Amino acid sequence: AADWHDQVLWKIEEPLFISFISSWLNVPAVWDWIYFLIWPVLFIAMALIFKTGRQHQLLKLALGVVIAFYLTRCINLYFPTAGPAFFKTELFTLESTLSVQAQEGLRLYMMGHMPQNGLIPGTMAMPSLHVGLTAMAAWFLACEWRWTLWLTIPWLLLVWTSTIMLGWHYALDGVGGILVV
Q1: pTM for this model (two decimals)
Q2: Which of 46, 54, 151, 152 has the most crowded Cβ, counting Cβ within 10 A?
Q3: How deeply is 144 buried, as exposed, middle or buried, from its count of CB atoms within 10 A (0-12, 13-18, 19+)?
């Protein structure tokens, strides 16, 4: 779409992407595993908080997740971005990953080649819900057990890096995701 803002973010972050893509870090299968592991990790965080008997904290986390979903969608409606893998497809080599399958499905969906049900909005890069939800889980776990920061901060950085390496998000999308939560 002509009103998408990918070119703005790409202009700012192109050197970052070129250095990441051409580095030894570019192992899509590893980043794909990290990227999709966010959901089980989020559910484990919720289960741990539930196990402590702090249902009020669990309710806050669950409500935060729902609000984050809506806020990220609203922000993306006003600052639409598809994401680097959609804007510069030729730079991302993601064969044999779930990301390449998901991205191809989103492309087909957005071009109208798949039934439109209104539940899937298409691709939305800014802000990153993956980074935001990972930060939210880290925060809630740290509120219960401060020592979990030793695990959750590196996890947050790995998830954030995975979104960049796989072309789902720009680095600034991660900043947006953290600001949302």
Answers
A1: 0.83
A2: 152
A3: middle
- Quote the pLDDT of residue 174: 92
Q: Cβ contacts of residue 19 below 8 Å, gap of 6+?
A: none
Q: Residues 60, 149: contact at Cβ < 8 Å?
A: no
Tens digit of pLDDT for each residue in 19-71? 998 889 888 888 889 988 888 888 888 888 888 888 888 888 889 888 988 88
**CA-to-CA distance for 122 and 162, rounded, in angstroms?**
20
Rounded CA-CA distance 123/129 in Å is: 12
Packing angle, helices 6-21 and 149-165, rounded to 10: 110
Query: How far from each other are the two terminal CA atoms of the chain, in whole angstroms?
Result: 28
CB 76 within 8 A of CB 126: yes
Question: Which helix or strand (DSSP H or E) is residue 175 part of?
Answer: helix 171-180
Confidence band for 121, pLDDT divided at 50, 70 and 90: low
Question: What sign does the CA torsion over 126, 131, 137, 139 have?
Answer: negative
